[in-house]
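question for whoever is on the cluster today: can someone run the full assembly for these? two chains, 539 residues total. i dont have access anymore since they changed the login thing
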Amino acid sequence: MYISLVKLKRKLVKFTNIFRALLTSQYSLMHEYRAEIALWAISGLLPLIMLGIWTQSSFANFNGSNYNFFVKYFISAFIVRQFTAVWVIISFEEDNLEGRLSPFLLQPISPFWRYFSSHIAEQLTRIPFVFFILIIIFLGIQDSFWIPPFHTILLSPIAIFLAFVIRFLLHWIFAMCCFFNDKASSLERLLLIPYLFLSGLVAPLETYPEILRTAAYFTPFPYLISFPSLLLSGSIVNPLNYFMHQLIWIFILSIFSFCAWRLGVRHYSAMGA
Amino acid sequence: MIKLIKKYTNFLVLFWSTSLSIELEYRLNLIVDIFTLVGNLFGSLLVLSLFYTNHHTLGGWSWSAALVVLGLFTTLEGFTSSILQPNLSKIVRYVQLGTLDYVLLKPISSQYWLSFRYFSPWGIPSIIVGFLISIYGVISTSNQFNTISIICSIIMIISSLITLYSIWFILATTSIWFVKVWNVNEVLKSILIAGRFPISSYPNIVRTIFTFIIPIAFLTTIPAEALLGRLDVYWFLFSLIISATLLFTSIRFWLYALNFYTSASS
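^ ran it for u. tokens below:
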């Protein structure tokens, strides 16, 4: 018993060392592509376009509190979306097609962590650009600045990170289709559809008809945008239940992604070898 | 002149028939793309309907009129994924690998070759469905059609296609200088989504930007107004001027950019 614990600890230390090395190398790589990442940050404008429409629609003019709700919600959604961007299907497909995956498989750590760390590194590089855009937003839109309560400031990053993990696992499972079909990137477009309409990116789920909203909360999508944004905008009083749901989804999806990975690797036949 | 047109249409037939046979290798994509189209359509209708609950309206547009805008947007999306995306996304690669040399050596206009060499059939369902939605919207607003309004609408739709093409081509041209420019098109795509809704549903400042700086109004709202038979003559002319200017700019800009092309590894 004692020996196995020691072994486990040694394994864990080794893993954290490798992961830290991966993360720092990926961070310096991403830092090289700052300009590109700035453009990606700008391309996440959709919540702000929707903000324009919702605040202009007669919905928001109905009474003043609605206006404030929409402004806070969509600015939060903009922030959440910035830090939950996932493109693992595209890069996995590229690595698979161009034969880079084989050397990754020989390394003493699963390629999963390589992609995971590159996403985190990209988010870290994004931070200054997001701040810059936020300042413009706060200056440009009237009554848009707010300071969330202290516990929200602490909890929101956790909610956003968990949302990112859910989305990453979801995409990872679909990325595994690359092992079976060369052009899996069209699946990414398919995955984008429920993400657009069920996550609360284009409209707060509160405006949906009752049945649809309940149905949406049975899928992982509302926990990607809607929950973190509502939390950040200060509309959720008791977030515990939502956090539980996020963890449950992470649990379910990690089992699936582990199985998908095992199945895929077994089927893998090194491109170009 | 007629000979020239004939030559270029012959090329077009050749280009598209070869790329069709390439694309048909990936038939599974068709199923995925149809699912994507249907999902996208239902989602867009749902979001649009949210604005119309409890007798609210969107920028003074009735539900059927807003459907015309949505339909035109869907059509433009199909046009983008059939022609613009497959062709213009490759320019970056030609510059990177230096294979643009071979394109320039061909006895045919390089802009024509770069813009129309490939064709992806997967956008066709969007084009058809988009048109059907627009026509449904027009019919349910029950305004009478006459020959003039039909001709005007067709001209406005062509003008919006030219505008969209020119913006894309101008941005793709900048890859002669900045090799990694493809993200700019992602930014453009994310802004063009704004064309899904009538331009009058945006706040004033945004509306001005979308009319005079990024001409989104001319992509969907103006053609939709033509289809609904309520476009006044000034906007009609203005739209023509915008598309003609942008097309002319794209041609001149491409020729100008070629002066700076130094090929790769030579």
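summary bc i know u wont read the tokens: Chain A touches chain B through 34 residues (CB under 8 Å). The mean pLDDT of chain A is 87.
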